[in-house]
Amino acid sequence: MTAPLKSPADLADAALIPPEAVAGLEAVAARYAVAVTPAIADLIDPSDPEDPIGLQFLPTTAELDRRPEEEADPIGDAAHSPVPGIVHRYPDRVLLKAVHVCPVYCRFCFRREMVGPQGLGTLSGEEMDQAMAYIAARPEIWEVILTGGDPLVLSPRRLQAILERLGGIDHVKIVRLHSRVPVVEPERIDPALIAALKASGKAVYVALHANHPRELTGAAQAACARLIDAGVVMLSQTVLLKGVNDDVETLARLMRGFVEARIKPYYLHHPDLAPGTAHFRLSIKEGQALVAALRGHVSGLCQPTYVLDIPGGHGKAVVSASSIAEDAEGGHRVTDFRGGTHRYAPCSEGL
């Protein structure tokens, strides 16, 4: 296999789904984009219906089950989009969504109504001019985050043009890119793309999206090493997903894998209320328990921040379980990773 698989029929031809499943999945593919790269297809175990890689990328009819609480724009991008391609939710940073296509399409994607061949497409030249003018006119914008879609699907020429324009805006100091490419299409991380990433002259960060330790293959790690050795700082982002990584052992292996690859664990996202994704969601209480257990058993270097995007566009909230609470005497009760509680005395007066 050398080309991405982009339909249920393609997936059946590659023996990733049974032929009899194709007809039932056509409605899913008509609504939500499908794409599986060779690197990901090689990781999927088609004999295991609970394979954690297959669950992330192979469509299922469960995606047609839309719940009342689910929303087309679950984190409220539209409410904070003053011009096409820009989301300005926080004072000092903006999202720049230059492209709305990806090399693969995650079955839990929170922007699944916006991405893919039927999605919002790529910004036109005029729209990109508007987006750059918006950034240039607001000196409070310190960081620009390229997302979408996956910005690393852009050609090196187009990516370099964007980075060079950002390089000309003095108050922008940080450029961050959110991508799955180093894992799902590692061969794209070549000298031309790396040179494009360096074109701004700014500090450049790449946040790698990976959800299971098997995604950190030798080829993926080599692609990340090429970026890091070129001076690009790498962070991780992971979505907590039922059946994929909702156990301490898997999360620990993943976070250690990131650190061993010189990638700093950054965010662990509670799954968003995207349409047709209820089968991936676990409760906040379950997530809090997992994160509390992780803290007790792996290095501090391996600890991501567990966050929830508040529906309606209100930003992120940290949802890790609270381990400290004030007591009646003015001190605090502190809970350790084994569940034991301990008193932390108040400061003595006069000190």
In short:
This protein is α/β, with parallel strands linked by helices and 351 residues long. The chain has 11 helices and 12 strands. The chain has helices at 8-13, 22-31, 38-41, 52-57, 125-136, 156-167, 181-184, 191-197, 218-229, 248-260, 284-297; strands at 86-90, 93-99, 143-148, 174-179, 203-209, 233-239, 264-269, 305-309, 316-318, 324-326, 332-335, 341-344.
Please explain how this structure is put together.
The protein is α/β, with parallel strands linked by helices and 351 residues long. It is 28% helix and 18% strand. It has eleven helices and twelve strands. The chain has helices spanning 8-13, 22-31, 38-41, 52-57, 125-136, 156-167, 181-184, 191-197, 218-229, 248-260, 284-297; strands at residues 86-90, 93-99, 143-148, 174-179, 203-209, 233-239, 264-269, 305-309, 316-318, 324-326, 332-335, 341-344. Helix 6 (156-167) packs parallel to helix 8 (191-197). The protein is globular and about 65 Å long.
